[in-house]
Amino acid sequence: MKKKEAKKDPKDMRHGYTTGACATAATRAALTALIFQELQKEATITLPIGKQVSFEISTCEFTGESATAGTIKDGGDDPDATHGALILSTVSWSKVSGVELDGGIGVGRVTKPGLPVEVGKAAINPVPYKMIMEVTQSILQQFEIQEGVRVVISVPDGEEIAKKTLNARLGIIGGISILGTRGTVVPFSTSAYKASIAHAINVAVTVGCEHLVLATGGRSEKFGMELYPDLPEEAFIEMGDFIGFTLKTCKNKKVKKVTLVGMMGKFSKVANGVMMVHSKSAPIDFNFLAKVAAESNVDETTLENIKSANTASQVGEMMLEQNNDLFFDKLCEYCCLSGLNEVDGNIEIETVISTLKGVLLGRKTLYSTLQNEE
């Protein structure tokens, strides 16, 4: 019998490099090959965090007019959709002075407002854009080259990779985004996930959405879409475990109404005021669930069973067996109250709890004008 491999401690996980860092390294290699007409096998760049890193150049071709170089993206131990992708940069001489940077095959185009890149432009985010421009300009200055150059970043498998991301919903069509603010990829980074949530909310608000449906996962999001078939796709956002962060971002963006959609496990925590609902962040409080059940006219025997339950789903099954709809509605009400308390009110919050198979258990909407007057 094969021994089960132990999970790595987060501290021991290997960091990787962003698509932006890879594109910058590929650009350095391509421009150097173009200038010296020599094959490049390595390119060293300085990351935004100040660290110098050398990238292996896996492909390099050149003529007197243009050069293309590429490196394979290493995402480290992060389950990144772009891990293993070939990131290419083609640099060619131009009759136009200065440096022109664009995206080619496999790099998406921005079609909706609200992202940090203008509509119509290649989806190369501001920090990678700056990195690529700076490395190109520094090489041209170093060798006193006056000619203009055109840089095109491409990802041969980018369009296929993009299908595994939310790019299309954000309005990034035809490929992936060239991303990265640090240059490195931190495995299972919460900051990266939060950034994607913030971008999604910004796009939704910019295109005019006043009601957003925030789901804890894919199944919950699908259920939310069934509840609100008339809402545009931008209105549906996967917030994962980041309930508090997502609600605060919605409040800051002046979203009028949010609908939280999820299942018993995570929403049992939200109802009790926990706004980061990862399994390791806080255990289920079964005494709290017993309190909600007591308010729902549950008998003493069931209350004791709830207190000794193993999972929130088990509690839900008990309530389903007793046809106690009041319990689920009360749990939803507590979720709404927790959300309103988190953002100091002035937003309408609806909570919907469903089963894994998409059966509606409870639904409640609350609005509060609670707000700090300081």
TrEMBL record:
Q: Which UniProt keywords apply?
A: Cobalamin biosynthesis, Methyltransferase, S-adenosyl-L-methionine, Transferase
Membrane-spanning residues where? none
Quote the EC number: 2.1.1.195
Biological process GO terms, please? methylation
SUPFAM superfamilies, per the entry: CbiD-like
Q: Which Pfam families match?
A: CbiD
- Kindly indicate whether the keyword Transferase belongs to this entry: yes
Going by the entry's taxonomy, the superkingdom of the source organism is recorded as Bacteria
* Gene Ontology molecular functions: methyltransferase activity
InterPro entries named in the record: CbiD, CbiD_sf
Signal peptide residues are none
Catalysed reaction, written as an equation: Co-precorrin-5B + S-adenosyl-L-methionine = Co-precorrin-6A + S-adenosyl-L-homocysteine
Pathway noted in the entry: Cofactor biosynthesis; adenosylcobalamin biosynthesis; cob(II)yrinate a,c-diamide from sirohydrochlorin (anaerobic route): step 6/10
Which HAMAP family does the annotation name?
CbiD (MF_00787)
Entry's family note = Belongs to the CbiD family.
Extract the PANTHER family matched here: COBALT-PRECORRIN-5B C(1)-METHYLTRANSFERASE (PTHR35863:SF1)
What is the recorded name of this protein?
Cobalt-precorrin-5B C(1)-methyltransferase
Species this protein is from: Chengkuizengella axinellae
| Primary gene name | cbiD
